[in-house]
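Bug #2210: token dump truncated for Prefoldin subunit 3?
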Amino acid sequence: MVEFLKERQNGKSEDDDVEDDDDELEDDETEKKPLKTTFELNDTLYAEAELEDTDTVFLWLGANVMLSYKLPAAISLLRSKLEAAEASLTNVISDLEFLREQITVMEVNIARVYNWDVKKRREKRELEAREGGKGTAEKDSG
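Reproduced locally. Full output below:
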């Protein structure tokens, strides 16, 4: 369940990142103004840049792969990634709901088995007490 929770959180942040990138590219395409961006120089060091008249963007695809795209192609790629991420997030959320239901069912079943065991032990003690009482009464009369 912890893995599903982590996956849900990662899916939400991925959705936000892709949405931000998509919005930025759409603004750049429609307004043709300089594109302001932040890029990573090191793990903890970032720099800001302003790109003039951009019609090409470079997107990280993962596994250390970066490709060059024209703006319309980049926007369509980001939209398809966003749709896939939203679908994945929906699946993870439904899986989490199913797991919560199953946990509740298991807790109820455990309680039922425990109560059944308590009842059986009580019946056994009562039976032993009755048989023990009969045994002492027979010895006294004998």
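Output looks complete on our side. The first helix runs from residue 2 to 31. Marking as cannot-reproduce; reopen if the truncation happens again.
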